[in-house]
Structure formats: structure tokens, C-alpha cells
Specification:
Length: 163
């Protein structure tokens, strides 16, 4: 993959943003947590892992994400990369990594390698994507719904992949 001003991973550096965009990003306050959201853990080799992305990914045929969309889309672990589409709407998001290699934003093959090596127990049958650039409070109900659905499917580890 070609490296440009955005780095090898396709992410924009804060210093490369316009002053207005930089101010918008750095002025967002992080919400404090009332208590740690920790749960009992188990060894990585016994975990089932799903990815949760904010890249606005979906499957061919899914409705595209729209600005402010608080929902999520499911992406099969074994589906062909050509059937995974991106509808992320932010003009500040560099899609180069996605266009060159889906693994840069949804590393399913790398997860399979970790499973084969015994580092991770299993890859979930599905991964999930929300639309980034959406108010997190608007996504809370959908995220809680997804968390319950993942638990019901035996997923005990979510790797968050922000864009």
C-alpha cells in the first residue's frame, strides 16, 4: 500500500486537518463513566472475537448509511471483500485504505491467523459497522441492542475499529 501524508493506515493526522476541522475534533468532550464497565475476563485463546467498526460498512444490497444514521450493519466473516461496501459520508475520511485493501479497516484475515495460531479462540460469524461522524448518544440504544445480540451469539470480545 502506498504511504502518503495520511500514513500507511489511511488515517488523517490531526496536524494535517484544517484549523476549523482540528478545532471541531479537539473540542469534543469525552463523556465520563460512572463506574468501570469491566466484566470478568477469560484468556484470549478462549474468546470469540467480533469487530465493531465506525467505517460505515455494509453488505451489497444493504441500505447505505446516511448522515446521522444511528443503526448498524452486519458483515459476514466469510463474505467476499467485493461484497462489502462503504458509505461513510465524512469528507474528512480518506477511503484509500479501504479501496486498496479491506484488511486495513476490517482485518478478518489477520483474525483468522490469530485463531489458527491459537492466540484467539474463534472469529465471530459476523462483524458490525456503524456510521462514524454520528453523535454517540444517538447510537446508544442500537449499540446496547447489538451488544446483547453479540452475547447471545457467543461473542465475548468486541474489538472496536474507529475511523
Amino acid at each position: 500500500m502506498k504511504t502518503d501524508i495520511h500514513g500507511a493506515n489511511g488515517l488523517v493526522r490531526l496536524t494535517d486537518l484544517t484549523p476549523g476541522s482540528r478545532a471541531a475534533v479537539t473540542s469534543v468532550a469525552a463523556e465520563p463513566m460512572d463506574s468501570p464497565a469491566w466484566v470478568p475476563t477469560k484468556p484470549a485463546h478462549a474468546r470469540t472475537v467480533a469487530f465493531v467498526s465506525s467505517a460505515g460498512l455494509g453488505m451489497r444490497g444493504d441500505p447505505p448509511f446516511r448522515g446521522g444514521d444511528s443503526g448498524y450493519r452486519s458483515i459476514g466473516h466469510r463474505v467476499d471483500a467485493a461484497d462489502i461496501l462503504m458509505s461513510h459520508v465524512s469528507v474528512n475520511y480518506d477511503r484509500t485504505g479501504f479501496q486498496l485493501d479491506l484488511e486495513t479497516i476490517l482485518p478478518r484475515r489477520r483474525l483468522d491467523e490469530l485463531v489458527a495460531a491459537g492466540v484467539v479462540g474463534a472469529a465471530a460469524d459476523e462483524h458490525y459497522s456503524f456510521m462514524g461522524a454520528t453523535d454517540p448518544k444517538a447510537m446508544e440504544a442500537e449499540a446496547q441492542e447489538l451488544a446483547q445480540a453479540m452475547l447471545a451469539k457467543g461473542v465475548d470480545t468486541a474489538v472496536l475499529l474507529p475511523v
